[in-house]
Amino acid sequence: MSQDNNNKTPVWKSDFPIKQDESTLISRRKFTKLLCLLSGGLALGTGAIAIKSVACPRARIGGEYFVCEASELPVGGMKSSIIINDKTETPYILIHLAEDKWRCFAQKCTHLSCSVLYRPDMKKIMCPCHEGAFDPETGEVLQGPPPRPLPQISVIVREGKVYLTDKA
Fold first, then answer.
1. Contact 64, 104 (CB under 8 A)
2. Is the pTM of this model over 0.90?
3. What are the helix (H) ranges across the chain?
C-alpha cells in the first residue's frame, strides 16, 4: 500500500475523499426511531380513514340519483361520476346524444375494466386500452376484444334535471 509522503495518508483515501464525520450524522438507533415514527403515523392514518368510513358513510340513495342540470351538459357532452349503492360504487358515463336523447353506461370496459370515454367526433364509446368500441345508443360492441356490451343505466329527465335510476 503506497502512501503520500507529505500527509502520510494512503493513496486510496486521496482518490476517494470521504470524510468519516459525515458517515455518523444519524445513528442506527435514531434511524430506527424515525422508521417506527413513520410507520406508526401511517398506521394511525389508515385507522382514521377506516373509522371515518364506518362512522360517516357516504350518502346512500335508493331509487334515483341526481346527476346534473340538463343545461349543464351540452349535446355531444359526457359526464362521469359514481353511483353509490348499498354494496357497490359503480363508475358511469352519462352521454347527451341529442336534444332529448340521453344514455348512461357503466364506465368499465367489459374486456379488462379500463375506463371508457365517449368520443363525439367518432360517435363511439372508446376503450383506449385495446381499441375497443361501443355503440353510444345501445352499448353494443362495435369493434375490438370486449366480449359483452356495456351495462346500461336508465336515465330520467324531469323538470330540467337529469336523474339515473337503478330500476330498469
1. no
2. no
3. 11-15, 28-55
**Whole-angstrom distance, CA of residue 107 vs CA of residue 93:** 6
Q: What is the pLDDT of residues 98-107, one digit of tens each?
A: 888 899 998 8
Closest CA to 145 of 112, 107, 116, 117: 112
Alpha carbons within 13 A on the beta-carbon side of 134: 31
Beta strands 117-119 and 124-127 are: antiparallel
What is the distance between the alpha carbons of residues 20 and 1, in angstroms, rounded to a whole number?
A: 20
59 band by pLDDT with thresholds 50, 70 and 90: very low
**Which of 6-45 are b and which e, b meaning 16 or more Cβ less than 10 Å from the residue's Cβ?**
eeeeeeeeeeeeeeeeeeeeeeeeeeeeeeeeeeeeeeee
